[in-house]
Amino acid sequence: xxxxxxxxxxxxxxxxxxxxxxxxxxxxxxxxxxxxxxxxxxxxxxxxxxxxxxxxxxxxxxxxxxxxxxxxxxxxxxxxxxxxxxxxxxxxxxxxxxxxxxxxxxxxxxxxxxxxxxxxxxxxxxxxxxxxxxxxxxxxxxxxxxxxxxxxxxxxxxxxxxxxxxxxxxxxxxxxxxxxxxxxxxxxxxxxxxxxxxxxxxxxxxxxxxxxxxxxxxxxxxxxxxxxxxxxxxxxxxxxxxxxxxxxxxxxxxxxxxxxxxxxxxxxxxxxxxxxxxxxxxxxxxxxxxxxxxxxxxxxxxxxxxxxxxxxxxxxxxxxxxxxxxxxxxxxxxxxxxxxxxxxxxxxxxxxxxxxxxxxxxxxxxxxxxxxxxxxxxxxxxxxxxxxxxxxxxxxxxxxxxxxxxxxxxxxxxxxxxxxxxxxxxxxxxxxxxxxxxxxxxxxxxxxxxxxxxxxxxxxxxxxxxxxxxxxxxxxxxxxxxxxxxxxxxxxxxxxxxxxxxxxxxxxxxxxxxxxxxxxxxxxxxxxxxxxxxxxxxxxxxxxxxxxxxxxxxxxxxxxxxxxxxxxxxxxxxxxxxxxxxxxxxxxxxxxxxxxxxxxxxxxxxx
Length: 607
What we know:
The protein is of the alpha/beta class. It has 3 domains: 2-140 and 334-355, ATPase, nucleotide binding domain (Nucleotidyltransferase, domain 5, 2-Layer Sandwich), CATH 3.30.420.40; 176-326, Nucleotidyltransferase, domain 5; 368-596, Alpha-Beta Complex (DHBP synthase). The protein contains 18 helices and 23 strands. The strands form 5 sheets. A 9-stranded mixed β-sheet has the order 14-23-22-15-17-21-18-20-19, sandwiched between helices. Helix 6 (129-138) packs across helix 13 (335-350) and helix 7 packs antiparallel against helix 11. The two termini are 40 Å apart.
């Protein structure tokens, strides 16, 4: 049975194909269109998934959309009636999009399928937003039963849900409804601190360790009524998102000692303290919901999805202080992952197929579910474009890359299948030596062209992770933080140092990936999930005695992660990367023709 899942029309649209219970392919539309957070019907992602599965013109059995558009439309109408006459302009703009596109999603998906030569199945199934998130987490997990927790901004009416997953079914136990939303609360602070809502939340998380939690009591006293079970009620007099024009209002600014930070303006200690405070409140909410979920379900396992599940600091707090023995987090936890959840929900819950798991292996295949690059095609393209390169034997490739890195070069690597989800995990990555803090400075300013305070993540050989990080379990999808071990740390003095200057102070032997609170967002790399990346790390370890590398996504600010060799070369030539490795071919920036250098990053919009 071939089931196509689709998410679209809000942000991060995607498609996923499940065939006989196996995840064959999944990809975000942005990787093909090159429009970051693309919300369009994912025609190119659908075409890729169906081609990867060999789905013929009449072979597709079912399409599952990740939510119920009419229910979301009802929420918007009810909200409009509640706040009128405020928000008239935003409401008019929303209605235009709904009437022209969003209410006709079934026909738009059918039209897209016909364009790519596939006959639409007779019926399209609809999941629900949080059910799709829950399905993406539970059905892809290694667990036969688990409590399933989802947190995000809003989907239809729900903002948070708890379900019990058993076998091939999900049973919803509770939901928290709009406007009381942990995701929207966090996004309100994201926007107030000058970052873009729905894409800048990870920046706020990265800023938090620079601050002190001095606003926690103010948030809990004024903004929300938090109950023991994790449910809460927001005091909407401080928020403006019901009217759809912005997240917060003047009362919010008065409460937190000043106006919102304009985008690109300087960040000061107040912004860092706000980030730390809302991070602490978020962790408290997640912990309370988790404890209540444990009481409701009786399960010792938990699965997480929804945008808030990408908060790796809260995830680690849940692992350490929560009630569950094991947690598993969907690596594509945001709306893109809803496409995968929809397909899995259709295959297991609607069609009723049996689900078999072994308790240890998830279905995500390392999250390498996107298009692959092949050496023959890359060589042909390089030759046709007259691009200088050096071909390296596959057996010698890891050592060659490791030598470049050990010599201080920053190297972008594109190999195998693209990752599904927001994290680059070694196949569409920029790699660097983590032992100097100057590496992170160069990466932020000269390569990634982003804020200097933002940390970089380490990839570490799974078998040596405990020598470098205090991590009680594997972290293959870069969704948990871990402190750097005591013996790898260096003494530091930060008294009187400006908040933004603290990022330049070395704190450990792997200074480029050690955040100001001595933590790191760790990716453990094993030979089963990604033998190629594991071999590079092993070769670097053999050269340097360090089994750790900086691993950051191969993109520049405002662009999606690269997909093809062409994307990679354009991005390479718009940065100060030293080398690009495309499969078995090594390109040195110094050898490239001057007329191919791009003066500025190829960005659609700053984020």
